[in-house]
């Protein structure tokens, strides 16, 4: 899912076409002709680095994204819901695994691997997606994540289904197929609440009110000026994605606002409306400074969730060490 | 004893039904609590691949619990969701060793969980479950035979998974070896009640619903001794109480409070 957010260490190589202008031209021709680049093919350093950042952020977001939902897995209110949410969160971990493998292949020439990704995450050098820094306060949040966060993921991921990098493109095919089930799982929870008791309806509306700004932020800032950095240009230039952040957000609003309203729900933005002339939704911008704070690990649950990963990492140090020790058979 | 084909038939013999539901509660409650403890581990396993595999097993195990609760529902014990969520700890029949927490802290804050406990407990549990279900294949209650058969199709993968872990860890680094051995010592003191059949044991045997406690224990010991390179001395004990007789620790109460928190916020609502 998860589109590009500027990485902590802004170490992107510059003007890589100068490293070998001929190879670069050939490379650009290939991707413009719709060919797929494979892991062992020549690629400009800027392309490789853009992919590493994009895919490791995507992968780690899947993994960190399991944590907010996990909070509700043991609490799911029926056997059916327990099974459903377990399956969903397991899929997300699976997506993380798949993507980290793609990222690891790209990092190999730099002598880096999975452990570096984890260390970058724990140090705060590798960002994870803004939505996964937020608190989950009720069961409605668990449904809302499936419905609207996975719904947003479907929009950004299908936008990259034709990505120029083959291994990523193939991973996305599989991920998108599963995301559709996730959105259905979320929608089923939401429908039960929307058709339920007054308390259930209120719980749902409250969840939507709290999540709305984070959902708008999901697609990233509209322009580079908004937060001072946005690498959407590089991903578009290299045919990794097609649309801009704002284009994706508009597609999302087009798809979900009618559904939200038809369930009798509202969004916490009195100004929101569709402008027939401009053919787009006019909405109140979320606080992009807050967005920057959130993805810099200063969101409501950023540190707590990183802490969970850190504890897990530390507590299993002996396991990693043991696995590296050859088994002595009796 | 001739085969009892349906729930309706079982219900006509009150003593038979009473003995039968004891066995079903044991099977359902064991899977349910083991799956709950597994779900607390989600996102905290030693590596991502393990998280994926472990959560798959946890999910299957919850599915198995559901099948057994459904058998109880057919016998008139109440709705499967109510059986899973509403019963308090002194109505539960799971083995006490399966209910103890994964470590200090909670799954939400400071989960200082011990992978050695996860490996030892899940391995011992799956080995036990295999024996119990294989014995259930001979049960006089046909729906139990069928369900045991279904569950046993998925179960070899679960057992194999934990067997691989314990095999890898028990003779690797000194630290791993010590951690595994001390968790095995602990297990030997706590797992005893799992092999009990509870207050209706005599009827369970007389009506050929399940094999004896001794058979279960002996077959299990034979099986784990093939894998374990360290087997604690002494008999199995039940230091935490007898779960089959509905005795439990307060750690089960805490688990139940969590897993039924949303359900209990409105038992009548549709979730
Ligand atoms: Fe995903
Ligand atoms: Fe998803």
UniProtKB/TrEMBL annotation, chain A:
It holds the Pfam family PaaA_PaaC. Coiled coil: none annotated. InterPro entries: Aromatic_CoA_ox/epox (IPR052703), Ferritin-like (IPR012347), Ferritin-like_SF (IPR009078), PaaA (IPR011881), PaaA_PaaC (IPR007814). It comes from the Bacteria. PANTHER family: 1,2-PHENYLACETYL-COA EPOXIDASE, SUBUNIT A, PHENYLACETIC ACID DEGRADATION PROTEIN PAA. This is 1,2-phenylacetyl-CoA epoxidase subunit PaaA. It comes from Aliibacillus thermotolerans.
UniProtKB/TrEMBL annotation, chain B:
SUPFAM superfamilies: Ferritin-like. Pfam families: PaaA_PaaC. Its EC number is 1.14.13.149. The keyword Lyase does not apply. GO terms for molecular function: phenylacetyl-CoA 1,2-epoxidase activity. Keywords: Oxidoreductase. Coiled coil: none annotated. This is 1,2-phenylacetyl-CoA epoxidase subunit PaaC. It comes from Aliibacillus thermotolerans. The gene is paaC.
């Amino acid at each position: 899912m998860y589109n590009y957010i500027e990485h902590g260490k802004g170490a992107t190589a510059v003007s890589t076409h100068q490293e070998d202008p001929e190879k670069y031209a050939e490379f650009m021709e290939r991707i413009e002709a719709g060919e797929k680049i494979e892991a062992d093919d020549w690629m400009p350093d800027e392309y490789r680095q853009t992919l590493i950042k994009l895919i490791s952020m995507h992968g780690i977001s899947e993994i960190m994204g399991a944590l907010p939902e996990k909070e509700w897995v043991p609490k799911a209110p029926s056997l059916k819901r327990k099974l459903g949410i377990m399956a969903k969160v397991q899929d997300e971990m699976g997506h993380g695994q798949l993507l980290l493998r793609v990222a690891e292949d790209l990092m190999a020439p730099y002598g880096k691997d999975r452990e570096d990704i984890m260390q970058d995450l724990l140090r705060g050098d590798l960002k994870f997606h803004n939505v996964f820094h937020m608190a989950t306060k009720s069961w409605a949040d668990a449904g809302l994540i499936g419905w609207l966060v996975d719904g947003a993921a479907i929009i950004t991921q299908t936008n990259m289904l034709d990505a120029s990098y083959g291994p990523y493109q193939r991973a996305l095919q599989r991920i998108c197929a599963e995301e559709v089930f996730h959105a259905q799982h979320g929608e089923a929870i939401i429908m039960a609440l929307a058709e339920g008791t007054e308390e259930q309806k209120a719980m749902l509306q409250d969840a939507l009110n709290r999540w709305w700004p984070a959902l708008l932020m999901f697609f990233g800032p509209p322009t580079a000026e908004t937060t001072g950095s946005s690498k959407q240009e590089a991903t578009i230039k290299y045919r990794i994605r097609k649309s801009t952040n704002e284009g994706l957000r508009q597609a999302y609003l087009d798809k979900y606002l009618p559904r939200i309203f038809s369930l009798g729900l509202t969004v916490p933005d009195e100004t929101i409306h569709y402008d027939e002339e401009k053919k787009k939704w006019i909405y109140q911008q979320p606080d992009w400074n807050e967005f920057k704070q959130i993805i810099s690990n200063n969101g409501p649950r950023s540190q707590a969730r990183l802490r969970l990963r850190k504890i897990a990492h530390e507590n299993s140090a002996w396991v990693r060490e043991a696995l590296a020790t050859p088994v002595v058979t009796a | 004893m001739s085969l009892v084909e349906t729930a309706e038939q079982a219900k006509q013999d009150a003593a038979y039904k009473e003995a039968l539901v004891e066995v079903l509660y044991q099977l359902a409650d064991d899977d349910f609590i083991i799956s709950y403890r597994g779900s607390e581990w989600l996102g905290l396993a030693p590596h991502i691949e393990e998280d994926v595999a472990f959560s798959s097993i946890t999910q299957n195990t919850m599915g198995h619990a559901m099948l057994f609760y459904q058998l109880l529902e057919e016998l008139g014990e109440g709705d499967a969701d109510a059986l899973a969520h509403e019963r308090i700890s002194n109505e539960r029949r799971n083995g006490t060793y399966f209910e103890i927490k994964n470590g200090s802290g909670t799954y939400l804050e400071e989960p200082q969980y011990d992978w050695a406990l996860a490996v030892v407990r899940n391995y011992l549990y799956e080995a036990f479950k295999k024996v119990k279900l294989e014995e259930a294949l001979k049960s006089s209650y046909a729906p139990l035979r069928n369900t045991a058969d279904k569950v046993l199709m998925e179960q070899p993968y679960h057992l194999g998974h934990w067997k691989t872990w314990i095999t890898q860890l028990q003779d690797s680094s000194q630290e791993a070896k010590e951690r595994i051995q001390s968790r095995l010592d602990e297990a030997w003191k706590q797992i005893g009640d799992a092999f009990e059949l509870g207050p209706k044991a005599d009827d369970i045997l007389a009506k050929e619903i399940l094999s004896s406690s001794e058979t279960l224990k002996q077959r299990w010991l034979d099986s784990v001794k093939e894998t374990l390179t360290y087997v604690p001395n002494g008999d199995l004990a039940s230091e935490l109480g007898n779960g089959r007789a509905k005795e439990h620790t307060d750690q089960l109460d805490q688990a139940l409070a969590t897993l039924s928190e949303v359900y209990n916020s409105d038992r009548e609502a549709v979730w």
